[in-house]
Design goal:
Among the domains are: 53-160 and 202-256, Alpha/Beta hydrolase fold, catalytic domain (Rossmann fold); 298-385, no CATH class; 442-520, no CATH class. Helix content is 42%, strand content 12%. It has helices at residues 11-34, 130-134, 136-140, 163-172, 182-198, 208-221, 235-246, 265-285, 290-296, 300-313, 331-341, 347-360, 371-385, 391-401, 418-431, 463-473, 494-506, and strands spanning 53-56, 68-76, 86-94, 106-109, 145-149, 227-232, 250-256, 316-318, 327-329, 450-455, 476-480, 519-520. It has a 10-stranded mixed β-sheet, sandwiched between helices. Helix 10 crosses helix 12 (347-360) and helix 11 (331-341) crosses helix 13. The radius of gyration is 25 Å and the shape is globular. 42% of the residues are buried. The model is unreliable at 1-35 (pLDDT under 50).
Length: 521
């Protein structure tokens, strides 16, 4: 519609028009709110055949001087059916400057399960972008880097999300813990799963087995004879499944902080967290520096248990901006923050600092906008709103590949409460996806050149997982004494990173000078 200026000669008409516009916008917004879809937009590819791998325009911005190229691999949603729909996965291949000099690229396999593997910040792909800086040593070997959004994730088609359930869960945190409607969140999750299935999504087809078959199709379509796998965290399961279906296509493997033998999910997670609490207690008991003695105080476990009791009745108020509706951090959100800070190498000290700040419980409006409050709110927000994470794919994979039957039992420091365990089981039942009794035995792949890296402070996948995997597959094993989850690319220890890259080049693991700390076997 084109409007001509009337030089202010008809203010009544202008006011009426403005009122009509505002009313129209309000009506549209109200209609959208009433028809909020439970899922994101579902796009199934058309016009392709199973096994096709096609160079495509990247679905996000890239600099013109980038050497990155996007590809789509078209695969069956159900590898066991000949007449089902096709889906696609997205891969980004980054060549070294001047082009790849060797034919076996480096494939990055993200963890979760449920995290997309393709970074989408356009500046990351440029000549001086973050990706080139982060992976400079790999690219320097003459190898291309390949990142993949596996089935259901990121820019795969279709991408599976439950935005309405996440919105309801996030809005619920703006109520005091005792008034939150967990049944409403469960109902929204189930409604999302129903809509996904009604839209043609087979939730039983989203797991590591089929993701591995998709990757095999990608390798063949790109004309790659062999590639080098890097599996971080749950990416280890994808790597093991890829070995299972396509061993001939794998030249070498690096498992970083791997998930392995992690079948009874609830007890395993609880034991991992309590192990780290024990380590913090031991670190405090041995402390000689005054700063550590001061931050340790009394028993950390007892302090956390006491804090949880306090937060159930008196949550901490957090605000994201002035005059914004506050977020209430109860005992469960505090545990989420503690768990999140333990991802970092300095997580022990950060947890103790967070614990002390929560114990002090400064009150008042400005306290809710303080630096620590903003940091905690951001950590909680990221956990709920991370757009690189797919809740449906996470659940579909975890329900199939982990045993959620055994309970972690009562704990004074619960990673999951008994109600939260029951909620997870209810979601698996709603998806109609059950644990299939799996356990991949890595000893079946003995002989494939393999390096396993673990961090001593890892609360997510403790080093005993890495040790067991290394023993079974006959791998070189390195246990870093200072690192947490993610050793190769997230460490500040450059010589460990360079030693791991050298392994990919030479297929032998020798620690460089300066890497004397840690356990190598």
């Amino acid at each position: 519609m084109v409007h001509q200026r009337n030089s202010g000669r008809d203010p009544v008409l202008r006011t009426l028009l403005l009122g009509l516009i505002i009313a129209g916008v309000a009506a549209v917004v109200a209609s959208m709110m009433q028809q909020t879809p439970q899922t994101g937009k579902l796009v199934f590819p058309e016009g392709q055949n199973a096994g096709d791998v096609v160079a495509v325009k990247c679905p996000f911005r890239m600099p013109r001087f980038s050497t990155a190229q996007c590809y789509r691999a078209y695969v069956p949603q159900d590898w066991g059916a000949n007449d089902g729909p096709l889906i696609s996965i997205l891969a980004v291949k980054i060549d070294p400057a001047g082009g790849a000099r060797v034919s076996d690229p480096f494939l990055y396999l993200e963890g979760g399960p449920g995290y997309a593997g393709v970074p989408t910040n356009y500046h990351d792909y440029g000549a001086s972008g973050w990706l080139r800086e982060q992976y400079t040593e790999v690219l320097a070997t003459g190898r291309a880097m390949i990142f993949v959004d596996t089935r259901g994730l990121g820019h795969a088609e279709p991408a599976l999300h439950c935005p309405e359930a996440l919105r309801i869960a996030w809005q619920g945190l703006k109520n005091r813990p005792e008034t939150r409607d967990q049944d409403g969140v469960l109902a929204a999750d189930i409604a999302c799963f129903d809509q996904l299935q009604a839209g043609g999504v087979d939730l039983e087809a989203y797991h590591s087995d089929y993701a591995a078959r998709d990757l095999q199709a990608l390798r063949r379509g790109l004309g790659i004879d062999q590639w080098n796998l890097y599996g971080i965290s749950y990416g280890a399961q994808t790597a093991l499944n890829l070995l299972n279906v396509d061993r001939a296509g794998v030249r070498s493997l690096v498992f970083d902080s791997p998930s392995y033998s992690r079948i009874a999910a609830f007890p395993a997670d609880q034991q991992a967290f309590e192990r780290v609490l024990d380590q913090i207690e031991e670190r405090c008991a041995a402390a000689t520096q005054e700063s550590w003695i001061e931050r340790c105080g009394d028993s950390v476990k007892e302090r956390i248990a006491t804090l949880q009791d306090q937060l159930r009745d008196n949550p901490i108020t957090l605000r994201g901006y002035p005059f914004g509706k506050p977020l209430y951090m109860g005992d469960r959100e505090a545990m989420l923050v503690f768990h999140d800070v333990l991802y970092s190498a300095d997580g022990f000290a950060t947890l103790l600092a967070a614990l002390a700040a929560m114990e002090e419980r400064p009150t008042g409006y400005f306290a809710s906008l303080s630096d620590w409050a903003m940091d905690w709110r951001e950590r909680i927000y990221w956990s709920y709103q991370d757009d690189q994470f797919s809740w449906p794919v996470h659940l579909a994979t975890a329900c199939r590949e982990m045993d959620h039957g055994p309970s972690a039992g009562q704990s004074r420091w619960p990673v999951y409460t008994l109600d939260e365990e029951q909620y997870q089981r209810a979601l698996c039942a709603a998806m109609d996806v059950r644990w299939d009794g799996r356990h991949i035995d890595a000893s079946d792949f003995d002989g494939v050149p393999t390096l396993v890296l673990s961090g001593e402070k890892d609360v997510i996948t403790p080093p005993q997982y890495g040790r067991a995997l290394a023993d079974d597959i006959g791998a070189d094993y390195f246990r870093h004494p200072r690192e947490s989850h993610g050793v190769m690319f997230w460490t500040d220890d450059e010589c460990v990173y360079e030693s791991a890259v050298d392994f990919i080049e030479t297929l032998e693991f020798d620690l460089k000078d300066g890497c004397s700390e840690g356990s190598k076997s």
